Amino acid sequence: MMTDWEQRYRGNDTPWDKGSAHPALGQWLAVNAGQMTGEVLVPGCGSGHDVRAIAAAEPAARVVGLDIAPAAVALARRHAAVAGETFRQGDLFDLAHDLRGRFAWVWEHTCFCAIDIERRDEYVQAVWQALVPGGHLLGVFYLDPYRGDHRPGGGPPHGCSLAELADRFERNGRFRVVEQHVPPATYEGREGCERLILMERLPASP
Ligand SMILES: C[S@@+](CC[C@H](N)C(=O)[O-])C[C@H]1O[C@@H](n2cnc3c(N)ncnc32)[C@H](O)[C@@H]1O
Questions:
Q1: pLDDT tens digits for 50-63?
Q2: CB 3.0–4.6 Å: which of 12, 43, 50, 114 could bond 156 by disulfide?
Q3: In angstroms, what is the span from residue 206 Cα to ligand 1's centroid?
């Protein structure tokens, strides 16, 4: 069943929103200070905790949060701005022209696992389209949200395997995995379920 994201935000039914940025993001930004600079896109940004964390850690970065749900964008905009970050309402699968070929970085967190599984190749293409050649996708990917259990209704979040990620992102030479590991920090309850993956966007056309 398709998720009505707008309805979920309007109904305050947003269990994914932990009220703070993903702990692995804060840790990565601290260890890699000065790297996530230039234009940064956060697709499926929700209420924008990760956007604000990046903007706070890298004030020179121009961070854009994108979300399909107007209520999420309104929520994000209600927070005090930390460093000129902006929020846009829009569909990642129909990327506005001014967002194409623009970003040095994309930060992924619970957008890939939220979209329909059948649209994953479109996600890969959209992120490829948003990035400049040589740009980077850094993401915390939810591999096994139910710890091997079947979930009634089947998600989201939708899990995935490392092999599937490698196939979808590296196939056709769109991305190259630079490094990946289990994030040392995460939200309570997600321990061991995720992978932090850094990929480079390659020049080949998808
Ligand atoms: C599970 S929520 C995660 C939100 C945020 N990353 C967080 O961790 O709080 C998934 C988000 O993706 C957004 N989303 C789903 N499909 C989208 C699309 N096609 N384009 C942009 N945003 C989308 C939803 O509105 C929702 O805010």
A1: 999 999 999 999 99
A2: 114
A3: 24
Residue with tokens 């069943």: 1
pLDDT of residue 103: 98
Ligand 1 contact, 110 CB (< 6 A): yes
Cα 103 to ligand 1 centre (Å): 19
Q: What pLDDT does 183 receive?
A: 95
How far, in Å, is the centroid of ligand 1 from the Cα of 144? 18
Going 53 to 56 to 62 to 67, the CA torsion angle's sign is positive
Q: Are 123 and 94 in contact (CB under 8 A)?
A: no
Q: What is the CATH number of domain 5-10+39-201?
A: 3.40.50.150
Q: What is the pLDDT of residue 146?
A: 74
Q: Count other Cβ atoms within 10 Å, centred on residue 173.
A: 11
The response to whether residue 43 sits with its C-beta less than 6 Å from ligand 1 reads yes
Strand, helix or coil at 121? helix
- State the Cα–Cα distance between residues 181 and 171, nearest whole angstrom: 21
Domains of the chain, by residue range, sit at 5-10+39-201
User: pTM for the full model?
Assistant: 0.96
Task: Report how far ligand 1's centroid is from the alpha carbon of 45 (Å).
Answer: 6
